Amino acid sequence: MTVLDLFRLDGQVAIVTGASRGLGAAMADALEEAGAKVIRLSSREADLSDREAVTRILDEDAEILVNNAGIIRRASVLEYTDADWDAVIEVNLRSVFALSRAFARRLVERKSGGRIINVASLLSFQGGIRVAAYTAAKSGVLGLTHAMANELAPLGINVNAIVPGYMATDNTQALRDDPTRSREILARIPAGRWGTPDDLKGAVVFLASRASAYVHGTALAVDGGWLSR
Q1: Higher pLDDT, 229 or 224
Q2: Is 202 helix (H, G, I), strand (E, B) or coil?
C-alpha cells in the first residue's frame, strides 16, 4: 500500500449535512473524488431542528459522518432573542450530538469502525461580535469533539473537527460587504485572503481516511494562519 492509497475512500459511504452549497458541497465533492459514495443532506431533505427526524436520516451502511450543517443569527447580546438563540443551538450543537450518538451506536452494533468529522469554527476559540449563540454552539462543538473522542476512540471510531477560517460563503456575506470589517479581517489573516470552500477538501479527506487512523480529538484549523496570529 502506498501513501496515496491511505487517502482513498473506495467502497465507503459518507453522510454530509449542509451539503447543498458552500463548505458542505466542497467537502462532499472531495469525498466523492476520493472514491466514497456520498449522501448529501440539506435542509430540503432533513430538518435538523426536528428531533424525531434527525436519527432517521442516517444510512445504515455509512462509515463517515460529516456534521457540517449550521445556521447563524446576528444581533447584539442586548437584542438577541430567545427564539434565535434556540434555533442556532438546536441546529449547530444539539443536532450534532444527536446525529453523532445515533451514528456511533450503529457503528458499534455493526462492530465496525468509522469517522465522525465535526465542523467547528474560529469562534470555538474566540468570542466574535454579534453572534453569541453561534459562538456558544461552536465552542460546544469543539468540547463535544474532545468528549466523544475520549469515549469512542477505544471503539475504533475517530472523532475530529475541522476549524474553517474566514471563508467566502453565504454566512460571511455580511462581513465581506462591510468594508471596515472586511479590511480588519484580511489584515489579520497571514495568508492575505479569504478562504474558499475548496480549501477544506484536503482536510476532510485526510480525516475521513486511513491516513488519520491514529488521529483522535484533533481540531484541524484551515484558517490561513488566523489562530497563529
Answers
A1: 224
A2: helix
Q: What top-level class would CATH report for the domain 4-168+196-220?
A: alpha beta
DSSP-assigned states of every residue in 54-108: GGGG--TT--EEEE---------GGG--HHHHHHHHIIIIIHHHHHHHHHHHHHH
Q: How far apart are CA 152 and CA 142, in angstroms?
A: 15
C-alpha span between 124 and 223 (Å, rounded): 13
Helical H segments across the chain, by residue range: 22-33, 82-89, 95-110, 132-152, 173-177, 179-188, 201-208
Q: How many CB atoms lie within 10 A of CB 58?
A: 18
CA quadruple 141, 72, 105, 25: dihedral sign? negative
- pTM, two decimals, is 0.95
Catalytic residue among 80, 134, 166, 214: 134
Question: How far is CA 82 from each of CA 31, 86, 98, 129, rounded to the nearest angstrom?
Answer: 37, 6, 22, 18
Distances (CA, A) of 134 to 112, 195, 228: 33, 19, 22
The 10 Å Cβ neighbour count of residue 129 is 13
Angle between the 132-152 and 95-110 helix axes, to the nearest 10 degrees? 20
Is 134 one of the annotated active-site residues of the chain? yes
Domain range list for the chain: 4-168+196-220
Q: What cell does 199 get?
A: 480549501
Residues 6 or more apart whose Cβ sits within 8 Å of residue 98: 51, 54, 55
Reported confidence tier of residue 49, pLDDT bands at 50, 70, 90: confident
Determine the Cα–Cα distance for residues 131 and 123; give it in Å rounded to an integer: 9
